[in-house]
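Hello, quick one for you while I still have it in my head. A protein chain has come my way and I'm curious about its shape. I'm sending you its amino acid sequence along with the backbone structure tokens. I'd be grateful if you could look everything over and explain what you see. Here's the protein in full, and shout if anything looks odd to you:
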Amino acid sequence: MSEVAVAMPRAHAACVAAVLLAAARVSGSGGGAGSGATPPEVHAAMRWYAERGGSLSPALEVRPSAACGGGLGVFATAPLEPRQVVGSFPLGATVSAACALHDAELGPAARAYLREHAPDGESIVLAAFLAHVRARTRDRPDAASAHAYAAYVNSLPWGDGHGDVPDSLAAHPLIAPLAAGSAGGARDVQLAQHVADARESAAQVGELLAGIAAPRPDAAACLRAVALVASRTFDFSTPLRAAGISLDGDGGLVHGRCVAVPVFDCLNHPSAAALAAHGDAGRRFQEHTILDACLRWRMVPAAGATATAAGGAAAPGAPASIAVLAPSALKVRAGDELWMWYGNAGWGEQNREAWEAKEVKFLAQYGFVPWE
């Protein structure tokens, strides 16, 4: 998802909001913001997050979102004040490649892979970790006690017929076969290359797990893990680098390029279709810039060496927590879905070719184009 603490210029943000608003008007209105029960696996992940020191405002809930392809979203259950802190979490409440280093079975292979492929290897190692935990715990009634990260991993949309989590990745281009005869245009050729790259990444995940005793994930699960890492993680590398923090402590192998945060990885990105499905979303984005209408992150410095990195190791100088703030100007109403800006999807590029390349990359990563 988005890189933390990278701000979009306000004039730029206003233009993006105008484009989304215009597209939403063309799309028409949908059937509301969505409703329904929170899957039990997500409740378990929320408890796991809280047990590790993560906090979540009682004014927030995770539930199905009709605005975003039937997946989950984060909604306000009560009005929020601008810049209100709606959650915070220590590094120990996140999931990254550092977690694989502490896994009894995967740890040695993960460490060797990161030493050879750092820093680009973080996504492969994290995908391998997710697929490994899923294979180990998917069919076990005692999953939570079978692996320390099972509660979070099993809250993800694996699409394997186990559990009640809606499969929000079913139509993702990395998962769904490309339509026959769709490889003629430049956009389709670029997308096909991204799909091929993802399948190569999935093969590397399988190779990384080859030396582990069964049960091991199959090729479909490895590809699904690659798509999960691509679409649901955040890039914390810039603020962590500025603070001199490595998520694996003194090892210096995990820099936070892809970090999963339970609950907040359910935040959706605003798109024309999603805004159209929210009756008043057009007015909201007309009155506020993207920067003022989306949630923001803030690194909170520690008073001392109090934070913990993945695995429980002390991280001297680490931030005590990462705070999640309500929109800076938009007054969120009860029932509103909350949004996180993932990236610009080509907006602001200097020419059409660069725009289309970034747009296709966004599509391959997140499964949709925000202007559609």
Q: What stands out?
A: DSSP finds 14 helices and six strands in the chain.
